[in-house]
Amino acid sequence: MSEKIITVDSEKIQKLASKIFVASGLNKSDADTVADNLVQAEMRGIRSHGLVQVANYSTFMRNGKINVNADIKLLSESISTLAFDADFAPGAVAGKHAMERTLEKAKATGVAVATVKNGTHFGFAAYYALDAIKENMIGLAFTSSSFLVAPFGGYERVQGTNPICIAVPAKNKRPVVFDAATSNAAYNKSFFAYTEGRSIPDDWGLDSSGNKTTNPADIVKKGGALLPFGGYKGYGLGFIISILTTVLSGTAIAADADGSIIEKTNGIGFNFAAIDISRFVDVDAFRKTVSLSIDRIKQSKKQNGVEEIYIPGEIEWNLYEKSKKDGLVLYNGVASEITRTIQELGLDDSLENVRIG
Amino acid sequence: MSEKIITVDSEKIQKLASKIFVASGLNKSDADTVADNLVQAEMRGIRSHGLVQVANYSTFMRNGKINVNADIKLLSESISTLAFDADFAPGAVAGKHAMERTLEKAKATGVAVATVKNGTHFGFAAYYALDAIKENMIGLAFTSSSFLVAPFGGYERVQGTNPICIAVPAKNKRPVVFDAATSNAAYNKSFFAYTEGRSIPDDWGLDSSGNKTTNPADIVKKGGALLPFGGYKGYGLGFIISILTTVLSGTAIAADADGSIIEKTNGIGFNFAAIDISRFVDVDAFRKTVSLSIDRIKQSKKQNGVEEIYIPGEIEWNLYEKSKKDGLVLYNGVASEITRTIQELGLDDSLENVRIG
Description:
2 copies of one chain form a homodimer.
Chain A: E1 6-8, H1 10-23, H2 28-43, H3 53-63, E2 73-77, E3 81-85, H4 91-109, E4 111-119, H5 126-133, E5 137-143, E6 164-168, E7 176-180, H6 187-195, E8 205-206, H7 216-220, E9 225-226, H8 232-247, E10 253-255, E11 261-263, E12 268-276, H9 283-298, H10 314-326, E13 328-330, H11 334-344
Parallel strand pairs in A: 3-4
Antiparallel strand pairs in A: 1-13, 2-3, 4-12, 5-6, 5-12, 6-7, 8-9, 10-11
């Protein structure tokens, strides 16, 4: 697939994406949130959760898979907990709302946990965890995903990629951000390789018969499964995250006709948490000590051929600053999908209007 | 090193270990707790945190590295948080105390987090997380450790093995228990290989010059570093756990003479959390749905050569039940170290009294 590669301004593409979501049925405020979520991911180099989703989300808003008129409900609340039903709202909208309430509660009690059932794709997890940093808190965000990953020793898709995100304040404006799928590689990395005709490393997934593969079509088109990261440890963490997101939220719980319990496996659930640092130690001392830990590790000896030791989230901060300055490069058919969507919606706009290179 | 291998009864060796700790200066109740912690680990096959520690702990109790007269203090408390100073009490004693208070708080508010500073080795992390199961809660337990692990791309010991444990109730009496170091393998696995003259897999660690090694002496005797599990993901999780345990507890925070902040890197900190399931969903439905998830994964297709797909913690439950029935086999000089300790303390007792094979 040959394709024109273009560079766009990050603020302008955010506005264009928001316009697309409004034309797809969403209100302006929520459209801004969803567009911001995708642009923030793209700026951090998390392309699998970036502008590639503009066309997908627009389709889902129009076909009802994302509910543009969702009524997000608080199902239950206790001193330090919240349980929401997102009513299939755009994931970023439900996620932001739930995290905001989680931070309020954590401010009052020191720590809070919220679950969200009936969610839709919430983009990159750090979007929510980072909100905690502004409040001098540690932020945690988890989501389930559709089943794509094999258990350790197996080859069927019986588990989501179930990412883990934890963000921790440091001295400067660059918090430490761990944000990673519990699969070896995000599904869309195989998808990008497939659309570009590239092969993939042989530890990303198995074909549908359980054999190793370097052909992304085995994963993307033929039902092969992704592998967990780090063998049984990544598998185990993925299993736990599925419980915290789907079962604890009620996403995976349903009564059948007889009132007995069946497991729903197709819903998406979220789990957010926040910990108020000031309840434990002085916040400035905490921030400075985290920075000292960062320095110690960054200054430690590097293996042959390694140029730099990175702190969790550091590469994404570097890319974020570069994107602010240099704009965003659209690869992988992303530009043509956005253009197709603009045309489908009959919008009087174009990527040319946001292009800078 | 040639050695007699003996089998002992788990209840009787627990009593003998407790007697050793009492003779080492600890009161009876705390000695029982510490002995129980080690026997529970050994029964689960976590030998690195099992009876191999009896002699070590006894030495530490006598030389003051473990404080047998510790005064565990609550430093601060808020609605859903607790911060303790363990005063270098035996880790299991401080850990049990902190987790007990965490569960009380979580019962009242839905979720609670506790930190512990000035800790000592707390044994296996599931010992604390499992306490949450009895209260229909999800339990989390983390600890820092002395620096043994290299960062991703590096080869210096600049991070602990920093394990993660999360326990989740299921329908039967076998909760799901994820409990793993963020290094590829626990340090004592290299130690055991060293004492037995075995080589180790080449992804466990690097020698002190940063080269791959299969010689455990490079790790145990020559300052080489362990490697994180799953590359940058296990390293990143280890980094986050170090923040939650050492920095959030104040273990790694100290003011120098000028009042400025320096990082202490030699202290051990813990972090415990509990989440009350009933605040989110019906507990029976939760337990049943977790069991359905277990069934779905266990019944999925296995890779060639794989006999069974295991749920996190399942192998340990199998070993636990086997140990109850068949007793505990003491390998690796463990028996001779215990015998030496009994003699040093001048106790009128012997492993022969607890032996069953």
